[in-house]
């Protein structure tokens, strides 16, 4: 059976469903429409459509179905059981198409502009002047509304095995294998794993950290830093960092403008998806059930994906280029290293696992933020700490905008990868399912909790927290490199000291 393309509108009394049935000869005899409580089932061979609505319908004499030969569609009108009842999320096809049980754990707080749904403000105030925001949220309320989410890392046994022969799973909820290795033979240079099909979750973290240290160039970073701080106007114009720090992506501008104009900015930002976005959700996303045991890594993945997206938007000043997918993929560890774990788990003598003493008390959110910054200082053209922090601030704004604004960003990211000849593989293993799952099952409350926790961790972060293992020297006897741990503030201090010395003692 083929799922037809459709669109839905409503008024205070009816649901209006338009079902497109192109390229077939219409026969009223074969048409079947069933209305059961909150569900509409449509069948006209070879088309089959089953839609579940948030509220109940009623099949009475007011319901009609008419064929429109000009548009090659069937216009269905169905009455609402309760007049004046608002049916939310009618522009989310993936959610309407979800099977029974798929929506367990979905939004308990699907919001509109109705004031009765805004009981107690979850987030009190946001400043729109740029980077600095004072968080005045009620932490207790956020915790309750965020489904009691605890973003700290869990201590658990490492069940992964790796004998170099067995394939490992990766991607969305660890559902995939064999896919990435095929893409590498076609030029997939986003992937950085030596053996993506045979590297378990813990080893992915180890390999990622090692390669981030190797990729980070202290001289490159220091040069960017000194140019930004001491460069003349010509240097700054050539470098471009000054203008980038002033740039705000359009999706963030949408939120800030709404917040400025809103009479009650504590509500979720109302967004109506465009026809193109609705078509994308309907045609290009999977329609299947997701039974996810641990949803926390999925939200952290969304956080990392949004950071890579925002940073790429800033870097290219809002215009997608042929390198956009590469940039986003490199900045996102869940893509470039298939690393959903983010933190290494160390094995003790008794066989138990615990978090290493480094950042032992860190939350997953803090680790995601630090990882994003480390990669932003290692891969893109502009490697600037302030730029990375600005990107994280914009991620916070998108999260504050609510579920629909996050969906809009995910759809844009998904399309960027979908149209790439090689990198589309990351839609297949991650972004397809992640976007579809979030549309149908993502929680508005968890997104708000995530926004608050991310902002708190960001504001507590300093340059001393961003460390790299750098080559200090080489052993004279063995020729092996000797490493030392330096944070980026230490690098800046050393560079500034050398600069002042040169100014005082010019050659």
TrEMBL record:
One of its GO terms (cellular component) is cytoplasm. The lineage of its organism: Eukaryota, Fungi, Dikarya, Ascomycota, Saccharomycotina. Residues 1-91 form the CS domain. This is Small nucleolar RNAs of the box h/aca family quantitative accumulation. The gene is SHQ1. Gene3D superfamilies: 2.60.40.790. It comes from the Eukaryota. Belongs to the SHQ1 family. One of its GO terms (molecular function) is unfolded protein binding. Pfam families: SHQ1, SHQ1-like_CS. One of its GO terms (biological process) is box H/ACA snoRNP assembly. CDD domains: p23_like. It comes from Saccharomyces cerevisiae (strain YJM789) (Baker's yeast).
């Amino acid at each position: 059976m083929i799922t037809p393309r459709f669109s839905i509108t409503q008024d205070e009394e009816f649901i209006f469903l338009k079902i497109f049935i192109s390229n077939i000869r219409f026969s009223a005899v074969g048409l079947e429409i069933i209305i059961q409580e909150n569900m509409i089932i449509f069948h006209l061979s070879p088309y089959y459509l089953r839609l579940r609505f948030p509220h109940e319908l009623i099949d009475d004499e007011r319901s009609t179905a008419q064929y429109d030969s000009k548009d090659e569609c069937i216009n269905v009108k169905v009455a609402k059981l309760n007049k004046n009842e608002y049916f939310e999320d009618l522009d989310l096809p993936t959610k309407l198409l979800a099977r029974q049980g798929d929506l367990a754990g979905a939004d308990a707080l699907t919001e509109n502009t109705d004031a009765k749904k805004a009981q107690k403000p979850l987030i009190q105030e946001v400043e729109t002047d740029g980077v600095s925001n004072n968080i005045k949220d009620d932490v207790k309320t956020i915790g309750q509304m965020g489904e009691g989410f605890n973003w700290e890392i869990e201590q658990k046994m490492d069940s992964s095995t790796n004998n170099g022969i067995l394939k490992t799973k990766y991607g969305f909820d660890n559902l995939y294998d064999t896919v990435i290795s095929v893409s590498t033979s076609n030029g997939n240079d986003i992937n950085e794993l030596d053996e993506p099909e045979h590297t378990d979750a813990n080893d992915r973290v180890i390999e990622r950290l090692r390669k981030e240290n190797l990729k980070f160039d202290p001289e490159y970073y220091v040069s960017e830093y000194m140019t930004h701080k001491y460069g003349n106007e010509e240097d700054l114009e050539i470098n471009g960092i000054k203008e980038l720090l002033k740039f705000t992506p359009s999706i963030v501008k949408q939120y800030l403008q709404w917040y400025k104009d809103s009479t009650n900015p504590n509500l979720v930002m109302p967004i109506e998806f465009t026809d193109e976005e609705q078509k994308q959700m309907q045609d290009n996303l999977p329609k299947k059930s997701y039974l996810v045991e641990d949803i926390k890594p999925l939200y952290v993945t969304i956080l990392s994906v949004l950071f890579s997206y925002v940073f790429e938007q800033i870097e290219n000043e809002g215009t997608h280029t042929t390198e956009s997918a590469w940039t986003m993929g490199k900045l996102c560890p869940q893509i470039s290293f298939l690393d959903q774990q983010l933190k290494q788990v160390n094995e003790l003598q008794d066989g138990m696992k615990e978090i290493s003493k480094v950042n032992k008390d860190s939350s997953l959110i803090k680790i995601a933020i630090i990882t994003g910054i480390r990669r932003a200082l290692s891969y893109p053209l502009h490697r600037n700490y302030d730029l990375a922090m600005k990107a994280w601030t914009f991620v916070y704004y998108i999260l504050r905008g609510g579920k629909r604004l996050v969906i809009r960003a995910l759809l844009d990211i998904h399309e960027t990868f979908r149209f790439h000849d090689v990198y589309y593989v990351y839609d297949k293993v991650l972004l397809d399912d992640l976007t579809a799952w979030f549309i149908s099952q993502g929680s508005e409350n968890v997104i708000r909790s995530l926004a608050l926790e991310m902002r708190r961790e960001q504001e507590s972060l300093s340059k001393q927290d961003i460390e790299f293992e750098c080559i200090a020297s080489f052993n004279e006897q063995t020729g092996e490199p000797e490493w030392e741990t330096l944070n980026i503030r230490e690098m800046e201090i050393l560079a500034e000291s050398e600069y002042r010395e040169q100014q005082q003692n010019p050659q």
